[in-house]
Amino acid sequence: MTEIRIPRLNSNDTEYTLVEWLVATGEPVRPGDLVATVETSKATEDLTCAGAGVLQHLVAAGTECAVGEVIATVLPVGTRVSASPAGVSPAGVSPAGVSPAGVSPAEVEPIITEPARRAMAERGIGLAAVRALGRPVIRVADLDALDPAGPGRVEPLSSVQQAVAAVVSDSHRSVPAGFVAIEVPVDAALHQARELTRTHRCLIGLTELVIAALGTVAERFPQCFGAYVEPGAVRLPDRVDVGVTIDIGLGLHVPVIRDAAAKPVAVIAKELMAHRLTAMRGSFRATDLTGANVLLALHTDDGVTTAVPIVLPGTVCAVSLAGVRPVLRLDADGAPVTHTVVSLGVAYDHRVVNGAKAVEFLRAVREVLLAPVR
């Protein structure tokens, strides 16, 4: 017999919602078959089967499942599987909350996840309003379409923004952060980016050059890519995994460019573009969004002069890249010349890094931006 357990899919959640079964109880499965879909706070994941045999559900769709919980077993081929245990609805069979023929969705009881029940109580949302949604499984995100009764209007946050709120709150509670920023001349870097774009036929800009620069300086500043460990120690990384903020209006995500130090800038650019396309589709997997040991927060809109990023819990540094802006400088003859500069900042865990080291780190990144890259 093989057990199917809920794996740990990210570092933020301790339980996930079992959204649906993809294979019915009693149906045969093989290793690698997709059997269920679960939802984390920021993504959905399909779970696979590790063994061959006959699937037996142990948990109903809509249930909040803890990490490590057994949700199904794979029994030997030929085993006669009885009807699903109480409360478990097999795939392909109308579960509680799915309208049978001739019955309207509002007349049946939906499955309401525990976080959704708590949110209903907090927002004053009644069961009748939830029934009217006509959905078999009610999650917190499904409540966004409903306004609570009473005066005024409460605007519920999206599930993605709720996850952001949790991380930001955790960061402010647990990380005593400092911040410093320096000005970086980028005329040469912008010219180089245009040349690289033409050479490699992929979009390369300051963001991609900064990611490559972080990979270059990591060996000199390993603590900036580490994690504080109680009491009074730091865990150093074995590679550079850069989380990059992406927000195209559908919520903030932080996909990870892994092993940035080992990749040419053109490869970094192609991976980052793939992440942008994934953000547009809203199809990030949990593995895309976990494991960063440094953050690059992008605030590159025109007019943004300085941005203070959040240090992700479990990391030491978060680098911020602001918008480019023109400045006037005097040349050797005293004539004014326009140059392009950008503010490069770093928020840092003061338990690990001090201000002087943070400035040295930023200056090292600046020097790389002024030099040729691969």
TrEMBL record:
Residues 3-73 form the Lipoyl-binding domain. It comes from the Bacteria. Residues 153-372 form the 2-oxoacid dehydrogenase acyltransferase catalytic domain. Its cofactor is (R)-lipoate. GO terms for cellular component: cytoplasm. GO terms for molecular function: acetyltransferase activity; lipoic acid binding. Keywords: Acyltransferase, Lipoyl, Pyruvate, Transferase. InterPro entries: 2-oxoA_DH_lipoyl-BS, 2-oxoacid_DH_actylTfrase, 2-oxoacid_DH_E2_comp, Biotin_lipoyl, CAT-like_dom_sf, Single_hybrid_motif. This is Dihydrolipoamide acetyltransferase component of pyruvate dehydrogenase complex. It comes from Cryptosporangium arvum DSM 44712.
